[in-house]
Amino acid sequence: MTTGTPRIGDYALLADSQGSALVSRAGSIDWACLPRFDGPSVFARILGPDVGHWRIAPVGGAEVERAYLEGTMVLRTVFRTQSGTVAVTDAMPFGRSGREHRLGRDSPHAIIRVVEGRGGEVELELEFAPRPEYGLTTPMLVPHPGGLRTRGGPRAYVLASGVPLQTEEGVARARFVVRSGDRVAFALRASSPWEEVEAAWPAEEILRRLEETIEAWRSWSAMHEGYVGPYREMVRHSGRVLQALTYSPTGAVVAAPTTSLPEAVGGPRNWDYRFCWVRDASLTLEALWVAACPDEADAFFDFFLTAAGGYVEGGRALQVLYGVGGERLVPEHELEHLPGHRGSRPVRVGNGAASQTQLDIYGELLSAADLLADRIGEFDEVTTDFLCDLADAAAQRWMEPDQGIWEVRGGPRHFLYSKLMCWAALDRAVRLAPRLGRETEVDRWSATRDRIRGAILDKGWSDRAGAFTQSFGSHDLDASTLMMPIVGFLAATDRRMRATIEAIAERLTDENGFVYRYRSPDGLPGGEGVFGICTYWLVQCWAMLGEVDRARALFEAITRHANDVGLLSEEIDPATGELLGNFPQAFTHIGLINAAWAIAQAEERPSSG
Fold it and tell me: What is the C-alpha to C-alpha distance for residues 115 and 27, in angstroms, rounded to an integer?
């Protein structure tokens, strides 16, 4: 196992709503994909020791404190040494349209780093080691006006440097002293090696773009502050994280900006999450409705309509996930040359779940359409047909087995959650029918909705488990059944629903009360941690039961596991509290937003006592 790799929670996210980077507390960018979230990395040291990084940090030890600048995803890291203090401000800049609240539409595909002396003097070292294509390429570093550029591989990278650089064997290095009041600017930009590469940005250009990016984020935040309930700052920050994970040219939302960060260190459950899942993206838009008043819901639906390319055979053309540009082909393969994060292999690129059957996706899309209908306004004819096809697909296919929400890689089953979301698809279609001009379909949709409800109540309950369970005929608990009251299928106070909530809280949790997805075999080796979104679902259920103190206690306990800049991963190691899985995880930040909203609603309801 490799040593010295920072833990997942040691990283902070930079993003420009097109690509992303992760910066460690030690000042090293150990992951970056430019210009797209799902493109090959230029830095990937988070997955292996010699696959790219860009470090700027004091020589020797330093105390570290960092935070995002207020209202932004611009990171400031303060290093305090015995001789002085410096701050490093990191950002991925937006283009000019960012000032029009369209973050990332014309991103320059760059990373900006500005070092500022805060007191005394500090000697810093810079190490720049680009390794494009997941480390398969070690490019030449050649002089270029204002800095240097790479030669080698399908993309060129131009580094602007405020200090002289020495290069050797694909690595550029520098040592420099910063005194109080000094500012030293750096910028890395992606370009095409087959076209004329522009000169590196001068310092004044870098500083101007940094200020414009700060202004753009704060302007966006000021216009998207819809939530005023408990945990307001956490909710608004999570809203910015979700916006950062949105691919602005198309409206797609990535599940996470990373691949193969493990669900258990050293284990094989390592997946590529840099794609747009129908489920995650729909829930993201719903969470943004709470946290940040989304103003481009029409672009979101247009993405899926365009990606699906029309409907055949009752909605079978809709995939589980897509590339952020709408690509259907995202084949999964392993990068055998990479040892993985702290020895966690294999490292995967692409995701085989794209070919799975997951019937819940119809319900998630229609639920988002129902929630956001007022913001969308009048549905055009194409969107109307798209939404009606979703309802018809749910009606036609709800009896089929599938791989379910957790994308199990064993055989298909009749998962309760999939049936539940087919019910939700038809329930929302009935509500939307007047807007869609399809009142004539209401009786047909309602009849099938009621048949699904009957099947869930009859076959989804297990007397032995004393709860609704993972799939029809099973006795295994599954956290996804917590969604039954959340989507309005049953009241949380229903006798069997309350029993299910209590059973999960007692038998599907660790000693902290954090929730596992399930504990039953799933066809894969290795274990996993407790799940962030599942724990937030339990918070929602406690709030819906009126047990606000219990909801608040669990919310605060799980949220304390966010790292120092407020980011959460998919899972938490139940033994150590370490963040696990791809990072940051949109699903978990969705859960935080919705759980806070549920608490707010519960506190507004008059007490029955």
Answer: 11
Query: What does the DSSP assignment read for 6-57?
Result: PPGGGEEEEE-SS-EEEEETTSEEEEEE-S-TTSPPSB-GGGSTTS-EEEEE
For residue 123, the cross-strand partners are 177
Computed over every residue of the chain, the mean pLDDT equals 92
Task: Find out whether 161 and 193 touch, Cβ atoms under 8 Å.
Answer: no
**Token pair of 128 as six digits:** 């720049």
Distance CA 423, CA 419 (A): 6
pLDDT bracket for residue 53 (50, 70, 90): very high
Residues 6+ apart with CB under 8 A from 454: none
Distance CA 155, CA 41 (A): 11
Top CATH class of 8-220 equals mainly beta
Distance CA 467, CA 556 (A): 27
* 514 vs 447: CA distance, rounded Å: 38
Strands 147-151 and 140-144: antiparallel
H or E element, residue 141: strand 140-144
Quickly tell me which residue has 């909801």 as its tokens. Answer: 551
Q: What is the pTM of this model?
A: 0.95
Q: Write the CB contacts of 547 (distance below 8 Å, at least 6 apart in sequence).
A: none
3-class secondary structure for 66-108? EEECCCCCCEEEEEECCCEEEEEEEECCCCHHHHHCCCCCCCC
Pair 543, 554: CB distance under 8 Å: no
- Residue tagged 């602007």 (tokens): 160
Which run of H or of E encompasses 186? strand 183-191
* 289-319 confidence digits (pLDDT tens): 887 666 666 677 788 888 877 654 555 568 8
Neighbours of 151 (CB within 10 A): 14
Quick one: 309 exposed, middle or buried, by C-beta within 10 A (0-12, 13-18, 19+)? exposed
Q: Phi/psi at 433 (nearest 5 deg)?
A: -50, -45
Residue-wise pLDDT tens digits, 195-231:
777 889 999 999 999 999 999 999 999 888 778 899 9
Q: In whole angstroms, give the CA distance from residue 389 to residue 379.
A: 14
Domain boundaries, given as residue ranges, for the chain: 8-220
Cβ–Cβ < 8 Å for 163, 156 = no
For 367-386, the DSSP string reads HHHHHTHHHH-SPPHHHHHH
Q: Is the dihedral of CA 562, 568, 574, 577 positive or negative?
A: negative
Q: Identify the band that residue 377 occupies on the pLDDT scale cut at 50, 70 and 90.
A: confident
Instruction: Check: CB of residue 605 under 8 Å from CB of residue 287.
Output: no
Task: Kindly report the three-state secondary structure assignment for every residue of 508-557.
Answer: CECCCCCECCECCCCCCCCCCCEEHHHHHHHHHHHHHCCCHHHHHHHHHH
Is the CB of residue 13 less than 8 Å from the CB of residue 24?
A: no
- Which residue, among 176, 338, 348, 181, has the nearest Cα to 258 in the 3D structure? 348
Please name every residue paired with 256 in a beta bridge, in sequence order, or none if there are none: none
Alpha helices in 245-358 (DSSP H): 278-291, 297-308
Residue pair 76/67 in contact (Cβ under 8 Å)? The answer is yes
